[in-house]
Amino acid sequence: MPVHDEDGDRARDRTEGARLFREAWIAGVRRYFPGEPKPGYVTPWEETPEWERVAAGAVYEQVRQFLEVSEGHAGRLTREQKGRFVATCWTAQMYRNFEDPKPGYVADWPDLPGWQQETDADIFEAIEKDAD
Fold this sequence. Notes:
Structural class: mainly alpha
């Protein structure tokens, strides 16, 4: 009989969630970015830096928890509100990982380019679908 390892399960779930986050990011960049995106924007999961994988997992968990504590009603947020939530969670990760992050890494929602706003909203919706 297999032993249930809650911490192992949680780590596996976070890794899968981080990967889902990254795949949604890449899909959004390819869909919305005007022109050719920077290579770092579409780096495959296997080549994504560890800090970024961890940050993606943290944001995935925050969105999942947000959906859970609202008993799914966070799904009723507008698309902009969903994107803002992802952007705010990501900004916190930038401050966590960089002592003095570039201004573009921590820009407020109105200052983000439209392609990034749309991508962040797509990320929330991808996590929302995964939570169902």
